[in-house]
Amino acid sequence: MQLEQNIKNGLRKKGSFFLLLTFFLLQVSFAQKPDFEKYASLLTPVSTYTIYKTDSKMTIDGIAKETDWSKIERLSDFGDIRGNEWPEPFLQTDVKLLWDNENIYVFAKLEEPNLQGKITKRDELLFNENVFEIFIDPDGDTHNYFEYEVNVLNTLFDLFLTKSYRDGGMALFTWNSPGFQSAVMAKGTVNTPTDKDKSWTVEMKIPFADLRSADAVKIPQDKEIWKVNLMRVEWEGGNAADQKEYPDRVKTNYWTWSPQGLISMHYPERWGLMQFSETKAGEGKVKFEVSAIENLKKYLWWVFYKQKDYKKKVGKYAASLEEISVPEQIATEVSDGSKTSIRMWATPTQFTVELNYGDEILSLNETAKLKQRKKPKINSEKSINH
Fold first, then answer.
1. Is the N or C terminus of the chain more exposed, i.e. has fewer CB atoms within 10 Å?
2. Which band of pLDDT confidence, cut at 50, 70 and 90, is reported for residue 246?
3. For the chain, what is the mean pLDDT?
4. Which of 158, 195, 189, 197 lies closest to 175 in space, CA to CA?
5. What is the DSSP letter of 92?
6. Residues linked to residue 382 through DSSP beta bridges, in sequence order
7. What's the whole-model pTM score?
């Protein structure tokens, strides 16, 4: 601030062109530095995992007896849903995934000294007791995604959402995943609190045919990336019903593979990145490289969060980037040190923000619909009229 004041004082003196130019460049430099601090927990890097292919005949029985399970690495450790600065989970959760041309396979082992579960009816709210969950967004646009939950009694809750609750999405509780299979094995006695249990395992088969919002079935290509996250809900001292009666005694823990940055799974942009590989399990390791364009998406989300806060405050979206203190030129933080531009079109009730990088265009609107497309090619040849 003192430097700025000195420059301003210098501007009042004759022959201060150099100072004027310096001040202008400083202002531009300041404008190009995004103020991520307020939204830091929502803009941290997400977790990554490579899913290797299996040619084994998979039996869904809650036991990882197929040899391919032993050939792959598990996901990184689960942590508090809010981020790494919060206390680490006191129970271990180990998860692995495989795939073939028809299904995704999930195997999870959950350390648990007190196995408990009461819900046996499908599509009841399983998160009101201990549960394991997976969320899948095949095209990564944050719309039309899927949720699966299973408890220790192997009860299923499956859900399709047109978009996040945050964005006015509709949850289709009547949607069922017809080809889904799961099995649970418990090491201990369920609902016997007087003894000490060890763990429970859950194995899932999720068909690609069920992961569609239109007629076409989407089978991943080699190195294709989907948005996925997994969560474990762990209750201490009881379940949701007990918490209402004893709020000081019962606590809920939400542990996730990729940190969400807040207590909500329905921020799909915060889910991890899962890369499908044609490499067979145990036949080599594929390096996961996050692309530059993937890293740039955070700038669109930064504008999105600022617009949402602005509307909460004044009742409408900002009409320009300047109103929400967003520069039109930003440093990309990619290895080539280049900059990129941000543009926004807005009305009081809608907005679209767009970012350009290389031959790619990213856009995001007020419903959190994320799109990626190639820039149109311009024909440089002159047309000849006869």
1. C
2. low
3. 86
4. 158
5. -
6. none
7. 0.86
